[in-house]
Specification:
- The model has no long low-confidence stretch (mean pLDDT 96).
- This protein is 40% helix and 16% strand.
- By secondary structure, it is an alpha/beta fold.
- It is built from eight helices and six strands, in the order βαβαααβααβαββα.
- The chain is globular, with a radius of gyration of 16 Å.
- The longest helix is centred in the last third of the chain and has 22 residues.
- Strands 1, 2, 3, 4, 5 and 6 form a six-stranded parallel sheet that branches.
Length: 203
Amino acid sequence: MKMLIVYHSAYGHIRTMAKAAAEAASAIPGVEVALRRVPETLNDEVLAKMGALDEARAQADVPVVTVEELGQADAVLFGTPTRFGNMTGQMRQFLDATGGLWANGAMVGKPGGVFTSSATQHGGQESTILSFHTFLLHQGMVVVGLPYAFQGQMRMDEITGGSPYGASTIAGGDGSRQPSQNDLDGVRYQAAHLAKIGLKLKG
């Protein structure tokens, strides 16, 4: 079962979660995982002004995803930061190029899920994931979230991400907060859950 983890990460938080997700899914027998990033649409000058150039360079070893790869995957987990309650423009531009997959029904019946990050505790994490779900549904995919079977999202003893819609993390206003152990456990659980559903559907 070929599973694809496709992400965009401006400051490294989503990249960290994507790697944790890949490790968790890869540990399941019969699952082959590929980690991919979406094409960057901003030039180095703009990235430098944003303070994101070093992170962009740090991801240079991660291959850029193609639409063809997306169509060949049996399951897909997407990761995107939150931008005003929605996915980033980089992720949106990539998804907008998948009309051919939609026309051919290439993604119908395949499981897909989403994880995200935001600067604040209530910075649009749920709206980002839910609005992303519309893409999965238009492609005919089976939406997979983060079940409450993952007890970590019930925690009240610390600030933490995670909802039934998908795993998440909180970066802080200056981006200094890295994903907590609980945040990483959440995305690992979601990735493994998605992979197991992918195996069942592939049959």
